[in-house]
């Protein structure tokens, strides 16, 4: 499963209409766990908010990646700066697995790829009225976290049709369900909300990306589960 595609989709959108004081709107350690399904294979992905300032926050993603032929838990963390006129800008990125004693810094090419990909407004961390696409109506979505009242939108991107359901009940991410049809279609469904879950990666301990990591590190939008 191409987990990097999920990460790219989640973080690559420009995010708009966010309150300037992020530290008043969001709380470290909160997040969500999602079930991602693609080609008959399902995996879990976690999203948790790390450190927060008034105009930036670190968002960490956890999932499973094949490393040296074996599945291993993997964490990626991104520092996202709020630009009121255009949304978030991904400034820094880090990666860590159980086989890495310290987190490693992702190359700048990753930040450039995330910031230039899928240039549309996001449902993630957004407010009502900040979403791009056609509003299809209010619906109740059955998830692992229970029945959730959500707003259903549909949009197009790169030849794919994207249906997504958002709700304030699913904060901090806001995403309840995502269905992508077309080339490499997949589905993401909320499993549960989480709190008091500290981020794995400590950016202050990060070292330069090693050549060993660089060899297996998937490029944005690539990589196999």
Q: How would you portray this structure in words?
A:
The protein has 225 residues and is mainly beta. It has 4 helices and 11 strands; from the N terminus they run H-H-E-E-E-E-E-E-H-E-E-E-E-E-H. The chain has a domain at 3-125 and 185-207. The protein has helices at 3-12, 22-25, 108-116, 211-216, and strands at 31-38, 41-52, 56-67, 70-83, 87-97, 104-105, 134-143, 146-157, 160-166, 175-181, 186-194. An 11-stranded antiparallel beta sheet has the order 6-5-4-3-2-1-11-10-9-8-7, with helices on one face. The longest helix has 10 residues, at 3-12. The protein is globular, with a radius of gyration of 17 Å.
Structural topology:
Elements lengths: L2 H10 L9 H4 L5 E8 L2 E12 L3 E12 L2 E14 L3 E11 L6 E2 L2 H9 L17 E10 L2 E12 L2 E7 L8 E7 L4 E9 L16 H6 L9
Task: Compute the number of helices.
Answer: 4
Strand order of the largest sheet: 6-5-4-3-2-1-11-10-9-8-7
Helix coverage percent: 10-25%
- Strand segment tally: 11
Indicate the low-confidence ranges by residue numbers: 1-17, 118-123, 125-129, 221-225
Helix-strand category:
mainly beta
Q: Mind telling me the C-alpha Rg?
A: 17 Å
Mean pLDDT: 78
Summarize the main sheet.
11 strands, antiparallel
Question: Helices and strands, in N-to-C order?
Answer: HHEEEEEEHEEEEEH
- The termini sit apart by 4 Å
Net shape: globular
Q: What is the beta-strand fraction?
A: over 45%
Structure, briefly:
This protein has helices at 3-12, 22-25, 108-116, 211-216; strands spanning 31-38, 41-52, 56-67, 70-83, 87-97, 104-105, 134-143, 146-157, 160-166, 175-181, 186-194. It has 225 residues and is mostly beta strands.
